[in-house]
Amino acid sequence: MIPPARDTNSPSAIGYDSGLPTISGFFLRLLCAAAAFVVVEGVVFRTGLYSHVLEPDSTTGLLQSILDDEKRRAVAGPREVLAIGHSRMGFRARAANELEGETGYRFATIAMPGSSPRVWYYMLRDVDPTARRYAAILIGVDEYDDEDTEDDLSNREMDIRYVTPLLGWADVLPFAASYPEWRTRWLAARAALFKGYAYRADFQDFLAHHRSRMEKIAVMRREDGPRRYNEIWGSSDVTGLSVDWKTGTIHYPEGSTESQKRILTEVLLRGTAEQTGLRGKYLRQWYGRIVERYRDSRTKIVFLRLPRGPVVRPTLVVPKTAVARELAASNAQVRLIGEHAFDSLEQPRFFGDPMHLNHVGSQEFSRMAARETASLLGR
What we know:
Layout: H1 16-45, H2 59-72, E1 80-84, H3 93-97, H4 100-103, E2 106-109, H5 117-127, E3 136-141, H6 158-163, H7 172-177, H8 182-193, H9 195-198, H10 200-208, H11 210-230, E4 242-244, E5 249-251, H12 258-268, H13 278-293, E6 300-305, H14 323-330, E7 334-336, H15 359-377
Parallel strand pairs: 1-2, 1-3, 3-6, 6-7
Antiparallel strand pairs: 4-5
Helix pairs in contact: 2-11, 5-13
């Protein structure tokens, strides 16, 4: 029997009859892919699972290692003090703890190179979720007066990389809104919303080198905490350094390399910026959030002005704000260690470069800071 001829003009002949199933199938596959993405994103990247296998040598991996070590550390009692700050916070917990019999306090530190007050807020929230663990938070700052510089901390992209593992769904909007420009707001929101995207390069490296990564992480978990607690910092100093501030002339330490001379020049003879109060606005937000977080806690917030350097620059500008002073004046929970408590350390023999204490300087600074903190808090 010959089948009937097909009408080539009919909807069936030109594929209209299969169009709807094709479109619906496409959307079904798209929905399944989206659901799979949400599940993977939630299980792998939002449970904190992946943050523990980040590349240890990355800035994000180092930050996670520091926080994880502190969370694993057994609390010795109610008189614990946690230090936080950036690389200039040369606080050594071991040196401070050698004075525990004298001070009555035990110290720990989560100071992170390159971090900022915005990052400190999320770090503290991570290691102290109940805001009850410590007797005090010791915050190392460059100055009590908020000098505006060319570096706009409020728009600092590096912060996104540091805090991505510490962000939850509720942080997406406030974290993104803390950036003043729409471009950085988008970057911040994207990292908070899609952690898998933020981790994509690290995740690809993990898939390619997962065995060596896990071996490195095992060593890190076993050794990095004790190493950081016991390590000896560099013993070099900048003895011989002096500056004629009137002529802008530096006498460099004997044997300085061209690279060292360049760093000394860039730091010590840096220019000034117009004083707009922008730095104060930023600090008021993030110091304020830290203080507010501990508002109903026994924890005191103690600010400490770090030793300024091996030689001290003369005051060239008049800052418009002094947020740490304002908070201490209006809130009994906030304390300031004396502004000149560490002036005796502002000598070339205590510094390894124009900004950072060397081993001798950090040891002496830590002992002095422990005594000052205990005196301020009381036995």
